[in-house]
Amino acid sequence: MSTRRFTLDETVDFVVVGSGAAGGVVARELARGGFTVLVLEQGPRLGPGDFEHDELKYFYLSGITNDPQLSPQTFTSDPAVRAQRLFGYNALVYARIVGGSSNHFTANFWRFHPVDFQERSLLGAIPGTGFADWPLRYEELEPYYTRVEWEVGVSGLAGASPFDPPRSRPYPMPPMPVKSSGVLLERGARKLGLHPYPAPLAINSRPFRGRPGCVHCGFCMGFGCEVRAKSSSLYTMIPEAEATGRCEVRAESYVFRVATDKRGRATGVHYFDRDKRERFQGARAVVVCANGAETPRLLLNSATDRFPHGLANSSGVVGKYLMFNQNSDVHAVFERQLNEYKSVQVTRVVHDFYDSDPRRGFYGGGGLDSRINPQPALWALSSGGDLPRWGTEYKARLEAFTRSMVVATHSTSLAVESNSVSLDPELKDSWGIPAMRVTYQDHPDDLATSRFLQKRAAAIMDAAGAQKIWHDEVAHTTLSFHLLGTCRMGNDPGTSVIDRYHRTHDVKNLFLCDGSSFVTSGRGQPTLTIEALAFRAAEHIGRFARRNEI
Amino acid sequence: MPLPLPASRRSFLLGSGGALSGAWLACQWPHIAAAAAHASEVSDSLRTHHFESLSGAQAADVDALAGQIVPSGATPGAREAGAVYFIDRALATFFASWASEFYAGLTQAQQRFHALHPSLASFAAARSDAQLAFMQSLEWTPFFENLRTLTVLGLLASPKYGGNRGGAGWKMIGFEDQHVFEPPFGDYDRDYPGFVPYPRSK
Predict the structure, then answer these.
(1) Best label site of A249, A263, B113, B116, fewest CB within 10 Å?
(2) What is the pLDDT of residues A214-223, one digit of tens each?
(3) Interface test with chain A among B146, B173, B180, by most A beta carbons within 10 Å
(4) Could you please report the per-residue DSSP string of B123-180?
(5) Mean pLDDT score of chain A
(6) Which of B87, B138, B149, B156 would best serve as a mutation to test chain A binding (most A beta carbons within 10 A)?
(7) What is the strand order of the sheet A73-76 is part of?
(8) What SS3 class is residue A100?
(9) Nearest beta carbon to residue B173 from set A226, A337, A376
(10) Are B78 and B67 in contact (CB under 8 A)?
């Protein structure tokens, strides 16, 4: 727990909004740099003993995620059609506890490839999209990828994939033990001349930095880790930030407005405490790491006379260019036991189709991995293809649980201006703050990429000897955990929200760092890149502060 | 008024056994006998259980409907797992927001069934073939979707929510409720020789 407590009349050096993948890194780095840091987190602080193997609670009752009853959203796929609430769920999902979504992520930890940062230059414009280069290159981010792998903790086998981007150091831990799904993916993919490789995961394959190795319980995706083997901010960056004696993590503190003065500088944040009392904490600078959904919402809810369209929104692009990662599943059943409910979700990955290839006739690329939805009910309610959904044949499908696996495809989502997070004109959350309105429709190329990858996944399963293979038609996305692109980075203040150092173009002492900073979506698994960006951002923010340039 | 109870699981199982081969029966008999005995206990339990949300008649029909979604057999189905108890608790508490739609759908289904079979007291009282035929007409309705979701959750969610009694659903699919496993996890990784690098690997 926090060793430092700030009073409400103190002005801290930095308020960091959000304690997840980015917030944890930024807090630790700034606190280690000698600054006072207050982290404000919407949700409660839980520990290993609070997490449970309870899929109903975590997947159906918003056990640790944003609750659609308390924090409702509206959704539309067509900007011309009024957004409506979705029945029983929100379109944009994130973990609402200390450590944020780094608690419940699957922990797939792919680096972006160099191409992700400069595809617009390599491939040219795509009409109707905001396809653009990042204002930085892979080479500039590489040292920070390495810091994440070594300081947060990632297991893997460096260089195993011929497509692995250049790296300055191997992984600090060996890869996790292979599962049967990984063996089968590898068997099928190698037969087809592809190059499956051991999955890099932010999960300890052996004791590392004071945390134990994984016990293979199987409850990674969607769950908090009960043994601290998953490299969540909760277990890595947050306690190290607090150990400096300069950082307080204040849970159940929901920031709803960034305050600004007449000069247009951020002066602190307004938030609701656990008793829904409105509070204010002054700060010399504010770093918003609230995720790709809540960061733009906070800026839009922070409008003033000086910033009538939302804070840091002179470009008008705050909330726009929302990206997910298109994805699909291919299901397969084998003759013998796989027992995929055991251990980590993924152990083998294929990146042969990572790059976009103009010969395919559409933009996009992605990766494949071996896995299953390991929790019984979630799996039982997933698609059964053309199999009956009830009765004796449905039961026979359920009885094949331990012989089943999935190849998941993860791919690009193009930046489209109308895909966005905005404020719903009527709906408010339980605190009386305007709720999020989500507008999203996959670009046709995103759907084409998923279909392309789905065919490859099915071919791999066939080559591996599956008894039965099926998949659903690729569908438009109405639910995502990958929340990207809504406060995009760029050199031009007219078309982007933050500069290459994560400083907002409009407010000198306001910084944003999380999935919202992304310019392109990558191919999936964005958290490693979010954390690498956070290490880099914190370094520059600290440098600016020491030079009195904030 | 007597509670309309479902047809005896024992009589159904014995009756359907007549169409099966003797060898299969000999092989499956211990499972069938156990399932039938369990089903009888389920019926007794239904009669005496104090439901929070469902009426007795509704509980009997929901139990029978759930039993068609994941039937009993050589391994337990939704009835043996007590899915109806989960559904009752869910509609009374954590899925209370589903309740009005669920009950409207259930009432409509009961009325339709009665119109088709005026001589039968209820869906639960019908023979399995009549139940099956009626289920097919329900399949693509919103009520069926809710019923199916609740049934599966009642079969496979944690027993602490009232269903999946004794971990029956987990046992049926082969899921072990453990916190620690060690490799090898399955048959295909047992003899994995190790990752072989590619010539182009770095």
Answers:
(1) A263
(2) 999 999 999 9
(3) B173
(4) STTS-HHHHHHHHHHHTTSHHHHHHHHHHHHHHHS-GGGS-SGGGHHHHHHT----S-
(5) 97
(6) B156
(7) A73-76, A434-439, A420-428
(8) helix
(9) A376
(10) yes
